[in-house]
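Workshop exercise sheet. Pairs work together: one partner reads the sequence aloud, the other fills in the structure field after running the prediction. Swap roles for the next sheet.
Pair: D.N. / O.F.
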Amino acid sequence: MDFYDEKNGIIIGGDYTKPEANIANKAVTVDGGKTWKLLGDGKDPAYTSSVRYVPNGNSREIVAAGPKGISYSRDAGKTWKNFSDEEFYTIRFFNDSIAYAAGANRIAKLKFE
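Structure field:
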């Protein structure tokens, strides 16, 4: 789960024992978590273990990491593009354009422009 600001948030998860499943595993809030709206039901990304808003991305740019790789959205999570097929467990931003992802025996540096 991540919040861009006090109103806009996203949650992505799923069942880690069924990482291919992507039903009801993504939702967003625009009211600080009072209500949540499912998005992209049945669409990738499937199970992810980490999701982050891209700093200064106006709550529209999001990156998610999990066993199927790293995915990126430019439209607040409605659609996603696959960045990498390598398995990662977590992703964190160092600043507004550099993020680090970590997985089993690997670390990746990502640059956002």
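Discussion prompt: The two ends are 23 Å apart (CA to CA). What would you look at next?
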